[in-house]
Amino acid sequence: MEQKMIEVRTVLNDDLLQKVNYYAKRHYEDVSTAIRQLIAMGLGSIMKQEVITAYKNRKITLRETAELLGLNYWETQKILEEEGIPIINLTNEEIEGKVR
Known about the structure:
The structure is a single chain. The chain has 100 residues and is an all-alpha fold. It is built from five helices and no strands.
């Protein structure tokens, strides 16, 4: 299903526009497509870090983390491992309490 496109106007400084143009040329895209791609990549990166931080701070579960990242459990575990975040982040006291 094709998504509806909405026109948004913005102003870029010369330096930023040069970088967008460089990206567009290197990826054989027009400037509008390049801007959409760059926004999607930036938001994706920011959202990934926010979701990982939420998991690290025990605000969301592993399942919720996987869902928000759009990944399966194994892919999510691999990303968390790469970030140095343990999958089981319970304290010894919490583990002992769950065992009882």
